[in-house]
Amino acid sequence: MRGVLLRLLFTVALPVVLVVVWWLASDGSTNVFWPPLRTILETFPDVWTGQRLKDDVLPSLWRLTAGYAVAAAVGVGVGTVIGSYRRVRAVCEPVLEFLRAVPPPVLVPVIMLFAGIGDTMKIVVIVSGCVWPVLLNTVEGVRAVDPVMAETARSYGISGPARLKDVVLRSASPQIFAGLRQALSIGIILMVISEMFAASNGIGFTVVQFQRSFAIPDMWTGILVLGLLGFVLSVVFQLVERRVLGWYHGLRAQTRRSP
Q1: Comparing 10 with 87, which gets the higher pLDDT?
Q2: Mean pLDDT for the chain?
Q3: Cα–Cα distance measured from residue 253 to residue 241, given in angstroms and rounded to the nearest whole number
Q4: Residues in Cβ contact with 203 at an 8 Å cutoff, skipping those fewer than 6 apart
Q5: Which CATH number fits domain 54-202: 3.40.190.10, 3.40.50.300, 2.60.40.10, 1.10.3720.10?
Q6: pLDDT at position 184
Q7: In which region does residue 49 sit, left (phi positive, over 0), alpha (psi from -120 to 50) or beta (all else)?
Q8: What is the widest separation between alpha-carbon atoms in the chain?
Q9: Which of 96, 62, 60, 94 is nearest to 191 (CA)?
Q10: Residue-wise pLDDT tens digits, 20-44
Q11: What percent of the chain has pLDDT over 90?
């Protein structure tokens, strides 16, 4: 119980300190573009009503979820194939290094030409950035499967889908989840960027509209919403990761306790 309380204290300590510093630093501000935090918090409930959450936040979450899910499926699937076969990896590696070096925001105008300006374009933009950390971490995780474990599975006649599920993916799952964690933060960034191009709703669209109309406190409330959204999604991801990788974290804890 004490350990849980200490962990909770460490988790909330820095955010509380940063909020206090922001409050004190901005309290006497008369700069139009740097309003006091007090003003931003007072504006928040007036801006982010239930209707606005429905019209802007939910569409953003839908696009992020769809793009993230597609990127995860493609990244794990293609990464498993590339990581399992040396020749495939040798052929694909130069192309992968080239494609992952291209910043996804640069592709937005190109994607708009083929996918239009609707939700499809925004989902494709998210996929184009999220897929790389998942794919590359999956490749490395599959390559790092313990040869002894693989040989033992072969000796016991474990092959096909069972070998893929219980040996390869299970062994690579810590690195896959590392890629998924990176992809989540990239997805949030690309969600906002994609909504700044030819959009009619979404958090990114709303923040830009506030900025263009010089509703600066309202714009800052949108930035706070994005920060809170990122924090909540990170917590949810950690809970899922802890549950799926319980065996891995338990093994690491046991290893640390060993003399």
Answers
A1: 87
A2: 86
A3: 15
A4: 56, 57, 60, 191, 192, 195, 222, 225, 226, 229
A5: 1.10.3720.10
A6: 94
A7: beta
A8: 74
A9: 60
A10: 898 888 888 888 888 998 999 999 9
A11: 41
Through-space distance between the first and last CA atoms of the chain, rounded to whole angstroms: 25
Q: Which residues contact 117 (CB under 8 A, 6 or more apart)?
A: 197, 198, 199
- Closest by Cα among 179, 209, 250, 177 to 56: 209
Single-letter amino acid code for the residue at 55 = D
Inter-CA distances, 159 with 151, 167, 168, Å: 11, 9, 11
Residues 6+ apart with CB under 8 A from 177: 241, 244, 245
Q: How confident is the model at residue 124 (pLDDT cuts 50, 70, 90)?
A: very high
pLDDT tens per residue across span 139-168? 999 888 777 777 777 777 777 777 777 788
Residue ranges covered by each domain of the chain: 54-202
SS3 191: helix
